[in-house]
């Protein structure tokens, strides 16, 4: 007899145990964050509240004078003076042709009167013809206009009628160019005036 153990075949392969697969959740799509709000490079400057900072009318006038400035170049002043001299000569020549012969001196006196009072004439608004052309004007050191201020105009311009005095004033303007007291001559110092750019 045969042994039953020998008749049954011995399995050569051992079945592998089943390994459970791990659970992999589906991918979650994350949306990008919204862009930050637009911010200006320079922060806005706070506006001054007029109720907290009252401004007087005098302060406004002073600020206007300061913005105009008082530094007028030598060439500008000389050009304005030459134009005014030509106007004075024109007045003298024109009146001498109109008036009788015995009134020639009166004609030239009118021309000289223009030179002396040219910065105070009301119909020129405190600017001579030459200064209007060069866009400059004369004011007091306090910033007041010279309209109808005849005494100041007489002090400032009357000295120019003295012989050789215009040459002295010309020399002072030329040598003071670029200096702290530049743009002022003796007539300005005595009359307490200054020449500024007109707006």
Q: What's the N-to-C terminus distance?
A: 140 Å
C-alpha geometry: rod-shaped
Main sheet? 2 strands, antiparallel
How many beta-strand elements? 2
Helical content (DSSP H or I, runs of 4+): 40-55%
Q: What structural category characterises the helix and strand content? A: mainly alpha
Molecular structure report:
The chain has 199 residues and is mainly α. 44% of the residues lie in helices and 5% in strands. The protein has eight helices and two strands. It has helices at 4-7, 57-68, 74-98, 104-117, 129-134, 150-158, 165-175, 186-191; strands at residues 136-140, 193-197. Strands 1-2 form a two-stranded antiparallel ribbon. Helix 3 (74-98) packs antiparallel against helix 4 (104-117).
Short overview:
The protein is mainly α and 199 residues long. The protein is built from eight helices and two strands. Strands 1-2 form a two-stranded antiparallel sheet.
Itemize the secondary structure elements and their pairings.
Elements: H1 4-7, H2 57-68, H3 74-98, H4 104-117, H5 129-134, E1 136-140, H6 150-158, H7 165-175, H8 186-191, E2 193-197
Antiparallel strand pairs: 1-2
Key traits:
199 residues, mainly alpha, two-stranded antiparallel sheet
């Amino acid at each position: 007899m045969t042994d039953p153990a020998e008749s049954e075949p011995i399995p050569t392969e051992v079945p592998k145990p089943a390994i459970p697969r791990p659970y992999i959740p589906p991918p979650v799509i994350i949306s990008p964050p919204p862009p930050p709000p637009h911010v200006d490079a320079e922060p806005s400057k706070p506006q001054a509240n007029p109720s907290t900072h009252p401004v007087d009318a005098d302060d406004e006038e002073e600020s206007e004078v300061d913005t105009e400035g008082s530094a007028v170049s030598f060439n500008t002043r000389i050009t304005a003076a030459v134009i005014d001299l030509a106007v004075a000569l024109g007045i003298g020549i024109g009146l001498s042709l109109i008036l009788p012969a015995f009134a020639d001196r009166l004609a030239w006196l009118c021309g000289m009167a223009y030179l002396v009072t040219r910065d105070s004439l009301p119909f020129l608004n405190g600017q001579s013809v030459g200064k209007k052309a060069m866009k400059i004007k004369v004011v007091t050191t306090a910033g007041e206009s010279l309209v109808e201020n005849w005494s100041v105009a007489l002090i400032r311009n009357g000295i120019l009628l003295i012989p050789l005095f215009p040459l002295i004033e010309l020399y002072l303007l030329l040598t003071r160019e670029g200096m702290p007291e530049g743009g002022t001559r003796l007539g300005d110092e005595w009359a307490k005036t200054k020449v500024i750019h007109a707006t």
